[in-house]
Amino acid sequence: MGIIEKIKSFFKADSSSDSSSFIEFASVLKPFVEQKQEILNFTNKVYPDYPVEMLDTIEKLVLITPDLSQALKRVISIGNTGLTWDFSGVDDKAKVNLQNEIDSWFDLHPGILNRLIRQTAITGALSAEAVPNLDLSEVEEIRLIPVKNVVFEKQPIDSKTNIVDRFKFVPMQKTKNGTYATLNPEIYSYEAIENSEESPYGIPPFISALKWVLSQHKTGENVDKHINKWGLLGFIVALFKKPA
User: Fold this and answer.
1) pLDDT tens digit string along 143-198?
2) What distance in Å separates the CA atoms of residue 79 and residue 184, rounded to the nearest whole number?
3) Phi/psi of residue 23, nearest 5 degrees
4) Of 216, 210, 213, which Cα lies nearest the Cα of 51?
5) Which of 61, 96, 174, 215 has the most CB atoms at less than 10 Å from its CB?
6) Is the Cα dihedral 118, 84, 138, 202 positive or negative?
7) Strands 45-46 and 150-157
8) Residue 66 CB contacts under 8 Å (≥ 6 apart), including other chains
């Protein structure tokens, strides 16, 4: 039996076997237009240009790497200069009341600005939603949505002219069971520091330093070996023969 016959016999049902256990081929070949649409539907979610798992790596490195940790602390301290609110269309009394209400809210949520700046510095994007209370009278909390769980779906926008294809990026959150839930644009915000062309995903500022962090770690290990060998505070006495 030749190789072609062996391949054919592999996919053919044996008389003593259940034919349902063998592979069945599609009886009708779909036209290219339908295949193209299936491919487009399969790839309509846009993914970032960098591995998403690197966000977890950066999160760990800013805790244990002195350089990245110091850089992050400086970004937070320099970036958090406070907020200035400007109210238009209201009288002075209303401005005072509004400012007092905002100040009271921030007093109840200390450190929220630092958390937002920290998230932005590590992931390259601010990802948070303002959660209202039950009676919708005020914002109860600002909840940070992990950037690594946010995926954008590219959706077309109906155009009146049909000259230029218009589309929008709709943010979706990956759930624990692997499905995607659309985030409410009325309360959710995703703001990237910088991003690539045609991509809504923020670029982590520290991602370019990862290679050198690894190199620095290897260098430190070599230094530690020499310190352990010669002693941290010891003195080395070396005797050399006098040149003739």
Assistant:
1) 999 999 999 998 888 766 666 577 889 999 999 898 999 999 999 999 999 988 88
2) 28
3) -70, 130
4) 210
5) 61
6) negative
7) antiparallel
8) none
Task: Name beta bridge partners: 32.
Answer: none
> What band does 37 get if pLDDT is binned at 50, 70 and 90?
confident
Give the HSE-up count for residue 189: Cα atoms under 13 Å, Cβ half-sphere.
12
Report strand pairing: 166-174 vs 125-132. unpaired
Question: Residue 108: exposed, middle, or buried by beta-carbon count in 10 A (0-12, 13-18, 19+)?
Answer: exposed
Task: Note whether 143 and 80 are within 8 A (CB).
Answer: no
Tell me the HSE value of 50 on the side-chain side, using a 13 A CA sphere. 23
* Per-residue pLDDT tens over the stretch 88-99: 999 999 999 999
- Residue 152 phi/psi, 5-degree rounding, is -100, 135
DSSP code string of 187-207: TEEEEESSB-TT--PBPPGGG
**Residues 6 or more apart whose Cβ sits within 8 Å of residue 151:** 45, 46, 47, 171, 172, 173, 174, 180
Q: Which DSSP state fits 235?
A: -
